[in-house]
Specification:
This protein has 18 helices and 13 strands. The chain is α/β, with parallel strands linked by helices and 482 residues long. The protein has 3 domains: 94 residues, Nucleotidyltransferase, domain 5 (2-Layer Sandwich); 177 residues, Nucleotidyltransferase, domain 5 (2-Layer Sandwich), CATH 3.30.420; 136 residues, Hypothetical protein af1432 (Orthogonal Bundle), CATH 1.10.3210.
Length: 482
């Protein structure tokens, strides 16, 4: 129950990971009803209660659910919050947990830990409706937690209530935010982090604006200043034209932008990326009792392997063969960056087999492309889907040709390796075919097998078919037998 929106998430624990079954949000704007004396007015209370009545309809029939109701800044500071909490309990008979600012910051970092790969040292900012949380962390553990009294809803009320986007309004908002960030402890000003991330709807909206104007979602101070000038040029929130940003979010964009610009000015931050998880994910994983994983991507792969009943013994054989080939060619084929992707593809290459064994590569590709895969970026997930979809039979040139040249070349070479690894393990028996020698050139791969040719005639035919497929990738596949 945030200061701007209320969110409902229904999920289940599935093989050590969270699987979202349903989620929705309502724009409640609870903070709009908070006056200078921190009294919540009746209109805001009734909006919140009406939202809870709607949400109750979604899960009232779920048997024995584990439920956690979490409230953040507005209910944290509201002096009359019991006027909301008591009737809320009559609607949803579960205790409402009004978390402290530090606890909110901890849950935010925990949600990010479970949702993406972090660096050794990380800086996180989450701009909420009523407060802004700033966290420092070492991989899976937060080390500094701070909660500041600045949020996109409260700042919108103070500085942009009339909808006008002026130089003076931005100046006042950033000056107020400067004072908040100046109160942070000295650790936040050291610059001792490898990765800076922004969470919440405000940062997401700013990233989407960056995508429209710059072609990517990277946030820098220069870009923030340019966006601020664009908003000033528009002059009023009603004139904002941002195709990717929800209309409901545009009226809060200026306030969020002022806070984030102040953050960049006050702290030694060069650039920032959007965080794929936050408070809700932190609450869910804690509710399910799932501990932070040292390798978020491996947890996702292991979870999917269990979910789709992968034959791990066979998958491990394919993976071992693929890595033998990879280790021999990675340097000359410039594939070192893609080691883990190939390992993951080998592990999950039979994901679609329970749907249809004849076309399991296509079904597997679709499943991977459309799954929620914590820890994986869009490019990694796309490459994984592409490899699995092209592990056998005809190659999908339509998808390959959509890639930029360097990525396309890497995909083609990885596909070559995976196809041969799959081929060498056909039949699910321990292969008697040992690779005696592997040699790679720019557009060629030569394999020598320690087995007389006449004893593996069926395999030779398979390799000959594979030769023709590799020719279409401009890779000459040559093989010989001892």
């Amino acid at each position: 129950m945030g200061s701007n929106s209320f969110h409902l998430v229904i999920a289940r624990e599935q093989d050590g990971s969270i699987q979202i079954l349903h989620k929705e949000k309502q724009l409640v704007q609870l903070a709009d009803g908070l006056n200078d004396q921190n009294q919540l007015n009746d209109e805001a209370i009734q909006r919140g209660l009406a939202c809870l009545r709607d949400f109750k309809q979604r899960f009232s029939d779920i048997p024995l659910p584990r439920v956690r109701l979490v409230a953040t800044h507005t209910l944290r500071v509201a002096r009359n919050r019991e006027q909301f909490i008591k009737p809320a309990y009559q609607i949803l008979p579960y205790p409402i947990e009004v978390v402290s600012g530090h606890e909110e910051a901890r849950l935010i970092y925990n949600g990010i830990v479970h949702s993406q790969v972090l660096s050794a040292k990380n800086l996180v900012i989450d701009i909420g409706g009523g407060s802004t949380e700033v966290v420092l962390g070492n991989r899976t553990q937060s080390t500094q937690l701070s909660s500041l009294r600045c949020g996109c809803v409260s700042y919108n009320q103070r500085f942009f209530a009339d909808g006008k986007l002026t130089v003076d309004a931005f100046k006042q908002a950033m000056s107020a935010a400067d004072k908040q960030f100046a109160s942070l402890s000295k650790e936040y000003f050291s610059g001792d982090w490898d990765l800076a991330l922004g969470a919440s709807g405000s940062v997401k909206a700013i990233c989407e604006a960056m995508l429209q104007f710059h072609g990517d979602e990277l946030i820098t101070l220069t870009r923030l200043k340019q966006l601020r000038q664009q908003l000033i040029n528009w002059g009023h929130v009603d004139n904002i034209v941002l195709d990717n940003v929800e209309k409901k979010r545009t009226h809060l964009l200026a306030a969020g932008l002022a806070i984030l610009t102040s953050f960049f000015r006050r702290l030694p931050v060069d650039s920032m990326h959007f965080a794929t998880g936050a408070l809700r994910e932190g609450v869910l994983y804690e509710l399910a009792g799932i501990e932070a994983y040292s390798d978020i991507r491996q947890r996702t792969i292991d979870s999917m392997a269990q979910l789709y009943h992968i034959d791990r013994a066979h998958a491990d054989k394919v993976r071992a063969t693929a890595m033998t080939l990879f280790n021999a060619v990675a340097e000359s084929w410039q594939l070192l960056h893609w080691r883990r992707t190939l390992e993951y593809a080998a592990t999950l290459h039979e994901t679609g087999i329970h749907i249809n064994s004849r076309a399991h590569h296509k079904h597997g590709a679709y499943i991977i492309a459309n799954s929620d895969m914590p820890g994986f970026g869009e490019e990694q997930q796309m490459m994984l889907s592409l490899l699995i979809g092209n592990q056998r039979k005809k190659l999908d040139f339509e998808r390959l040709n959509e890639l930029e040249a360097p990525l396309k070349l890497a995909a083609e070479r990885l596909i070559c390796i995976l196809r041969i690894a799959v081929l060498l393990n056909l039949g699910r028996i321990s292969s008697r075919l040992a690779i005696a020698n592997i040699r790679a050139e720019e557009n060629a791969l030569k394999l020598t097998f320690s087995e007389p040719r006449h004893r593996v005639s069926l395999f030779v035919k398979d390799l000959q078919r594979e030769q023709r497929q590799m020719e279409t990738l401009n890779i000459a596949l040559n093989f010989s037998f001892i």
